[in-house]
Amino acid sequence: MSACRFCGTPLTLTLVDLGKTPLANSFLEPTEAAKAAEGRWPLHAMVCTETWLVQLAYDAPAGEIFSHDYAYLSSYSASWVAHAERYAEAMIPRFGLGPETRVMEIASNDGYLLQHFKARGVPVMGVDPAGHAASIAEGKGIPTRVDFFNQATGRAMAAEGISARLICGNNVLAHVPAIRDFVAGFPFVLEPEGVLTFEFPHLLKLIEQVQFDTIYHEHYSYLSLLAVERVLASAGLRVFDVEELPTHGGSLRVFACHEGAGHGDAPGLAAVRAKEAAGRLDDPETYRAFAARVEGLRAQFLAWIGSVKGAKIAGYGAAAKGNTFLNFCGLGAGDLMAVGDDNPQKQGRLLPGAHVPVISRADLMAMKPDYVIILPWNLRAEIAAQLDEIRGWGGRFVTVAPGSPEGVEVF
To answer: In Å, how far are 43, 60, 327, 347 from 216, measured between CA atoms?
Structure first.
């Protein structure tokens, strides 16, 4: 029996069991040896009935996931980079940031966010365990510490005199196996009246819209405000505001500070608490109903695949959520010709598990597919605009629409 990664309570309540799958961002070289050596780990999401923290019952090794050549680079999504710029534009005036303050990002990737603060004259520092991404950030003039952040890292940085007025962690809180140890590092590097922001996909949206493909080994936890307030409180940190965001199918941006800091509660905090209460995130029955809905969505998609047998089908966006989806559906190179992606780190390699080749956008267009499945459905509008030329030969887009009663949407 597994125990809660935060409080140690035995885990007995299942959200969904997606079977054994490979690591969602571990792309393969196109060789038989690479295919044979590929590992698979259980992907079983469970719920702590004490803290309501949803989490994986089995941890794939973090060192294998976030290796030096970790393939995900944030800058290849134009909409995500624009989101980061809007964040910088909002935070600088709100918290009085300038040349005398520092902004730090934990899991800073290739500098996609910090570059916007640097361009506006605010000193920055990144922390990221993926050496390849960090080297790209360094090339942009963004100092980056290659390390996993935790209590020991926070202590060491504080001993070096490092602190920040604003610390952000976009989509990182879900990525840490030892979540209590992770948040314990922040009080050491956050200034006394400093602000910490976390963005994460909202568990409430995952459940309401059957976003099961956002479950993969990198995401050790699936977060609600209900759970995050408890996690942060364990480190002496207090949530004082929450914003609801459209990113990743519906996310929260949580603002926190030291328990004794002077930031007063904003209306967003009470609003999201009320929505989660209405969504019954503290009721086991909310979670027990989820797995059957996931099975229904898979059945709808496989029925569609069967209805277009013989058509040329491709995918676009070699995203982690797409890899969860394809593996759970049991699809592979016999079902999809290829998956296009703009990231050259992924091109020429194979999707994990499905072993579908990843190619450039231009090569995908040359294939003239009849259908393009947009795997990262949260970027549906951006990708459909980029690939609009497929309509010239009668091609159509497909999404497995989260929350849609049809399950599969062809447009």
So the answer is: 7, 10, 11, 21
